[in-house]
Structures are given as C-alpha cells and as structure tokens.
Amino acid sequence: MTEKEILTEEKIAEAAREVFIEKGMDGARMQEIADKAGINKSLLHYYFRTKEKLFAFIFLKLILRIGDRLGSLMQEGVSIENKVKGFVDLYIDILLKNPFLPNFILNEVTRNPEAIFEGFAAAKIEPQKFFAPLENQLKAEGYNIDPRDFVINTLSMVIFPIAGRPILERIVFNGDKKAYKDYILSRKKSIVEFVMFALEGYKKLETRV
After folding, report:
1. Residues 42 and 64 in one domain
2. What is the total count of domains within the chain?
3. What is the value of pTM for the model shown?
4. Of 54, 65, 80, 176, which residue is most buried, by most CB within 10 angstroms?
5. pLDDT tens-digit profile of 132-150?
C-alpha cells in the first residue's frame, strides 16, 4: 500500500472507532463512518466492503496491541505485582477508548466464534504459553493459586465496570460521565491493591492447581 492509502485506512479506522463507540455495532452506518472520515461511501467500500470487515480490522489492531504488551509483561524478571499493574493499566486504557469491545467479543463468541479465535491467533495470544511460566512464578513467590483463576479474576474486575457502563454511569453516578471515568481510572490502583491483598491469603492455603 502507498503512504496515502495507509493514511486513508487509518483515518477510516479512527472514524469507525468513534462511530462504533457512539452507536454500537448494530447502530453504526457506513455512510456515517464515511462522512466522519471525510470520504465518499464508495471509497469506504473500496477499503472495507462491509461494516463487519471494518470492525474486524479495528478489532485485530486492538488484539495485536494487547498481544505485544502481554508478551512483555510475561517476561522473566517482572514481579507478580508489576504484572498485575501492567495488566490492569493495559486493559483499562484500551477499554476506556474502546468500550464496545467487551460486548462485541461476547456477541461474536455466540455469532461467529471462529472470527474471534482467528483474531487471537493472528495476535499470537496463546494463554497456555502464559499459564505455565506464570504458575511457576506464583509458586516461587509463595502464592498457591491456579494461574487461570489469577488471570480470569483480575480481568473480570477490569471488564465488568466498563461493559456495564450504561447502567453504572446512570444509576451509580447519576449520569455524571466524568465521575464515572474518574472512578474507572481510580480502579487502576484499587484493583492492584485488592489482587495483591487477596494473593497474600493464598500463601496460607495448600496448592489448588
């Protein structure tokens, strides 16, 4: 692709991301995306024939970013606490910018699971490769917890408040968008504190793996 084509593709992706955030996957329209990108609809269809292909492109870019960051976090020499901090920071930052992502993944797992699996494969995200060294490190630091519980519990605390944003923002924060966002950002610290405190309890338990 030429430099101009790459820039146009990036412009389309950013415009689409904004529309998807505002309208959701079902409510987004290709014409609206084209208008926001400052191009005509025919050119948009030249780059991405369907809304689904455009969304898949954005999804893959996000997954690739996650894969790269996870790879560096899982390197030897990174403490469990710093792994948690990096993990939480990464997901909160990505999900705040792309709040449609959790619901999209859940919908696609039901509608078209192969597309999700292909995305993770393309990003070289292979959990089984992470779990073995993570299990060894947890044991070495005295934490007798199944590494799958460790990852899934932490990820759940990050994802739920963002996936449930419409309810939380309206009911818990009385529609105050800033208060909601400030709360989510504050969880970067509170989740890490909660996880590390919980891990201390596992030092008193026999191994569950």
Report:
1. no
2. 2
3. 0.74
4. 54
5. 888 999 999 889 899 999 9
